[in-house]
Write a structure and sequence with these properties.
Shape of chain B: globular
Number of helices of chain A: 0
Helix content of chain A: under 10%
Strand content of chain B: over 45%
Helix content of chain B: under 10%
Strand order of the largest sheet of chain A: 1-9-8-3-4
Structural class of chain A: mainly beta
Structural class of chain B: mainly beta
Low-confidence stretches of chain A: none
Number of strands of chain A: 9
Order of helices and strands of chain A: EEEEEEEEE
Largest sheet of chain A: 5 strands, mixed
Largest interface: A-B, 22 and 27 residues
Number of helices of chain B: 0
Largest sheet of chain B: 7 strands, mixed
Oligomer: heterodimer
Radius of gyration of chain B: 13 Å
Low-confidence stretches of chain B: none
Mean pLDDT of chain B: 95
Mean pLDDT of chain A: 94
Radius of gyration of chain A: 13 Å
Shape of chain A: globular
Distance between the termini of chain A: 38 Å
Chain lengths: ~110, ~110
């Protein structure tokens, strides 16, 4: 599975959009990009995933660059409850997750 | 909607004792994954099962074993516990060929 690189941390003001980048320059053509988050020792929570096209659901939007070497998770209106560690994971269609360091996002009032 | 159930939620054991962690996947999910998360660390994959057969293995110590039963629940057995085994243990389940894994609340194991 391709390795991912994410910023260690980022702050976001409540009510503003949070844009979380992820680099996966070695991704192969049939690998998916998944995003999960972990709120303080709770079980990781699925957010969204995509292959080539941009995706949107009730939680977030996922923008994947045309060359698929990077992606951005967008939380449109961050709330205090969005404070968590966000993980970008690249895998083939299914299988074990290799969690990287993730991005600690702190949403401030 | 039904979620992944893990029991117990908290477990305190002494060194050299044994522990059994249980995981009940979401109904109709046929794949179970186990992850270990040490203090201040990211989750690390231990082992997975698909249709009651081991499907993949990660950095799981030989002192640990696991299996998936006919009702798809899974148990992680840990023997000769060491202080370093103190961690959160997460179970996740998924449906065949679907990448999304749904995680349980975890079992916090403390070895004293």
């Amino acid at each position: 599975d391709a390795k991912t690189t994410q910023p260690t941390s980022m702050d976001c003001a409540e009510g503003r959009a949070a844009n979380l980048p992820c680099n996966h320059s070695t991704i192969s053509g049939n690998e998916y990009v998944y995003w999960y988050r972990q709120i303080h020792s709770q079980g990781p929570q699925y957010i969204i995933h995509g292959l080539k096209n941009n995706e949107t659901n009730e939680m977030a939007s996922l923008i994947i660059t045309e060359d698929r070497k990077s992606s951005t998770l967008i939380l449109p209106h961050a709330t205090l409850r969005d404070t968590a560690v966000y993980y970008c994971i690249v895998i083939y269609s299914w299988g074990k997750f290799q969690f990287g360091a993730g991005t600690q996002v702190v949403v401030t009032p | 909607a039904a979620g992944v159930i893990q029991s117990p939620r908290h477990l305190i054991k002494e060194k050299r004792e044994t522990a059994t962690l249980k995981c009940y996947p979401i109904p109709r999910h046929d794949t179970v994954y186990w992850y270990q998360q040490g203090p201040g660390q990211d989750p690390q994959f231990l082992i997975s099962f698909y249709e009651k057969m081991q499907s993949d293995k990660g950095s799981i110590p030989d002192r640990f074993s696991a299996q998936q039963f006919s009702d798809y629940h899974s148990e992680l057995n840990m023997s000769s516990l060491e202080l370093g085994d103190s961690a959160l243990y997460f179970c996740a389940s998924s449906w065949t060929s679907k990448g999304e894994q749904y995680f349980g609340p975890g079992t916090r194991l403390t070895v004293t």
